[in-house]
Amino acid sequence: MRLSTVILPVRRWHEGGRDEWSRAEELGFHAAYTYDHLSWRTFRDGPWFGAIPTLTAAAGATERIRLGTLVTSPNFRHPVTLAKELISLDDISRGRVTLGIGAGGTGFDAVVLGQEPWSPRERADRFGEFVTLLDRLLTQDAVTARGTYYSAVEARDIPGCAQRPRLPFAVAATGPRGLRLAAEHGQAWVTTGDPKLFESGTAKESLEAVRGQIGRLGDACAEVGRDVAGLEKILLSGFTPGRPLESFDAFVDFAGRHFELGITEIVVHAPIPDSDFAMDPALFERIATEGLAQLGR
Hints:
The chain is of the alpha/beta class. It has helices spanning about 15-25, 50-60, 80-90, 120-140, 175-185, 205-225, 250-260, 280-295, and strands spanning about 1-5, 30-35, 65-70, 95-100, 140-145, 150-155, 170, 190, 230-235, 265-270. It is about 40% helix and about 15% strand.
C-alpha cells in the first residue's frame, strides 16, 4: 500500500503554500495531489489557486514525490489546451505527474463558463470523448479528430510527455461507463467510496460498497481483456462514514481494512484549520511517517 496526500490550493505560495509541498516530500508521501477546481464548496469565497500553476511550482520545490490532480474534469477544461499544459508540467517535473481525471460534478465549476448544466448522460458522453481524445493528444505528435463535444485540428504536442507513452491516468469512476474508461485508458482507478453513505451509512456498509466497486472494475477490465490487478486502486479519504483520521489507531484500522479489499493507495488531506479538513498536524505527520509501518508494509 502507498500513502499520499492532497493539498488544497488555499494558501499563497510564499505564505505557507510552498512549505506544504516540500514538507509532504520530507514526510515520505508517495504523491501529493491537488484539486483541479476554480472554486470548491465552503472555500468558494476564500483564496483558491489554479491547479496547474500550483503543481508547476511544486515541481520546482520538490525532487522525488509524485504530483497530480484529484481530479481534473471536462467542466472547464478542453483536451487540446490541457494536453499542452500536462506535457509541459511532466517535463518540468521530470516525469513525476499523474493525471487524476473524472467526469466532474454539478457544483460551481459546472456552470462557471455560462453553460447550462449537463444531464448525467451528456456528462458521461463528454467524459468519454474527453478521455479518449486526451489519450491521443498525449501519445501522438499531431492529432485531428472531430467529436460531438471536443475536436482537434492538426493539434501538435511535440515532444510529448517525459513519461512514455504518456503520463498515467488515474480515472475516477463508479458507474459502468466510467469504469469502462478506467479499464481502457487508466493506469489507476480512483474512488471516494459511495457518496450516498457519507451522511447516514456505516463503516461496514462503506467497505462493502468499495468491495462492490472493485468487483465491477474487475468486470470492466475483463470485458476489454485486461487484468484488474494491473490497475492501481486509489481511495481519496474524507468522504466515507466514520472518522478514520480522529486517531492514529483509527487510521491504521481504516487503511488495513481497505488494503484487504484491494486498495493500493490511500490519500489523506493535508490539515486546514477551521474547515472540514481540520486535523492535529502532529497526528497527520505521525500517520505519514508511521502509518504504513504499523500495517506491516
